[in-house]
Amino acid sequence: MTTPETERRQVADRIARRANRAGLQIDSLLQDALAAYLDLLLRWNRRINLTALTDDDPGIDRLVIEPLVAARRLPMPDAVVTDIGSGGGSPAVPMKLAAPAVRLRMVESRTRKAAFLREVVRRLRLEQTTVEACRYEELAARQELAGQSGVVSVRAVRTGARMLDRIEPLVKDDGLVFLFGSTRGSVDAIPPPWRVDAAYPLLDPASRLVVLRKRRR
User: Fold this and answer.
1) Which end of the chain is more exposed for a tag (fewer CB within 10 A), N or C?
2) In this structure, is the dihedral angle defined by the CA atoms of residues 3, 99, 79 and 153, taken in order, positive or negative?
3) Using one digit for the tens of pLDDT, what is the confidence trace for 34-71?
């Protein structure tokens, strides 16, 4: 009979193989932490709708490996990262696990999803990590957070000029926005003070990470 520990070890091994396929070498501690995150995500997903993805290879790539690829683009190991619409915790949690010195704030307006994120923080013992159960517009209006984020990451949230305008107060001068999306998505008409800094392929041929930079005024 397969035990939960054996199943988690099998998932950790699959994560290592998928990471290796993407050109990433990850140690056993990171493998185990990522497997523990996936275990929590999929168990909670049976009760609340966190993700449509599963722990098959495409699901592992999207949930875990793509954020690991993106973590290599963080401007510094201890960057302040604000993740908008964190939902099931990807890309924020895998990036944090890959770069543990990151100071992470996850923003999720849905109460039950925020509760899941807090459980992830507790169970994985994520330091310098907070969960804000509010809309990102409310967070951006808080004066004490103005210009504090070196990176704002966004996935599965509609991105356009209006959203960029609303999150702009959170981002410091020369700070970045990480947009996880499809190559079919548009980054046209990016409003000032933003400019497209780079676009990096992720794993799926149709997926990419677009990086915007906030120009100094």
Assistant:
1) N
2) negative
3) 999 999 999 999 999 898 878 788 899 999 999 999 99
Element (H, E) at 70: helix 66-71
Q: Is 3 exposed, middle or buried (0-12, 13-18, 19+ CB in 10 A)?
A: exposed
List, edge to edge, every strand of the sheet that includes 103-107: 129-132, 103-107, 80-84, 149-154, 171-182, 207-214, 194-201
Q: Please calculate the CA angle 190-194-200 and round it to the nearest 5 degrees.
A: 80
Kindly report the CA angle at 54 between 53 and 58, in degrees rounded to 5?
75
The answer to whether 96 and 104 have CB atoms below 8 angstroms apart is yes
Taking CA atoms, 78 is separated from 47, 98, 101, 127, 145, in Å, by 34, 12, 5, 12, 17
Tokens found for residue 68: 């690991």
Q: Could you tell me which residues are beta bridge partners of residue 180?
A: 209
Upstream peptide bond of 193 is cis (omega within 30 degrees of 0): yes
- Determine the Cα–Cα distance for residues 118 and 131; give it in Å rounded to an integer: 6
Number of other residues whose CB lies within 10 A of the CB of residue 182 = 11
